[in-house]
## 1
Amino acid sequence: MGLSQLWAAWRNDYVVKATAQERTGESSGCVFCALSDLEPGAENGVLALRTATFAVLNAYPYGSGHSLVLPRRHVASLSDLTAEERAELFELLYEVTHALDGAYHPDGLNVGANLGRAAGAGIPAHLHLHALPRWSGDTNFMTAIAETRVIPESLETAWGKITAALENPSTEEPVR
């Protein structure tokens, strides 16, 4: 059997930047804080902006529609949030999951948070909640054998689907 190749050139910028920052100990700041004041747009992945929170596409998704819901304030822990931030964070999480249902009609959703580096947080200093559509059988041989995920749509396409669903929420309840 010959050697197969799967190109993921979009990851190169991230790998080069992350490697350089780790080697030098320098950081260009928090990527989430940099996004927190931007108007929603396909070019930046910001899906929704609220007073104390915002939603953005995961730039390195596990699957189509993988979204993040975050406080705009730079905090690492749920216990650092004010009551108002907690309420708005979970209201926006509700809106995003409802939009994911409307945009993707998944069989299920993963919703969660990795709190701290030991728990798997890639950016542990800025709290973020994940919302990810899932389908029966979406873990295929590429994930199981090659430890590679195949994302079948661009981030721009995902942004368009989700923002349309956020703007015009479905009145249908999910099939689950």
## 2
Amino acid sequence: MENFSVAIVGGTGNLGSALALRLGAPGVKIIIGSRDAEKAKKAVEALKPKLRAGEMIGTTNQEAVRDADFVVIAVPYEGHAQMVQDLKGQVAAKIIIDTVVPLNKGKPFVPPAGSALQEAQQILSNEAPVVGALHNISAVDLGDVNSSLGDVLTCGDSNEAKEKVMEIIKRIGARAFDGGPATNAYVIEGLTGVIISLNRKYKSKHGSIKIVGIGEEPGH
């Protein structure tokens, strides 16, 4: 992939803003979406001085999605179903990257659909492939383009869509792994609750995961 565009709906939050900075590269257009276009524009004004390269604009969620190849959902779980419902009918031929984790006061739970990813799949039917990713990454490290990142597990039922998402993840400086079908999403999403507990226990903001024994040179 060379030139492509990514809409981040809920892009004014911590994860969305941090991801926008990491995505900054020649040929990449980043579209920050919000229900309030002015809020999105203000977020872009704050982020642009830190942007390494590429283009960044702020607008409404609907307008952001219209011009994008990839759509990142980066909202709290409470707004997840409504956000996906709002996008329905507008995301054909796009790839959805769902970063949402079902949490209640920092504790993970399994929603009725089985996971946030499967909830999005149910709402969208077959309109667009949904890939779960970036659940277990530290937003603090993501927002610092010089920080190293943990590994990213992706999941979903479209291998082609997962490959494209993993390519984007590699471009932002992380190792990406295919974590299996959508039915595995609840495990990957739930790991975030474990990382939150670890961060609290050990007074950190940098907890993430690392996969060992795969893709490594023998003896390393």
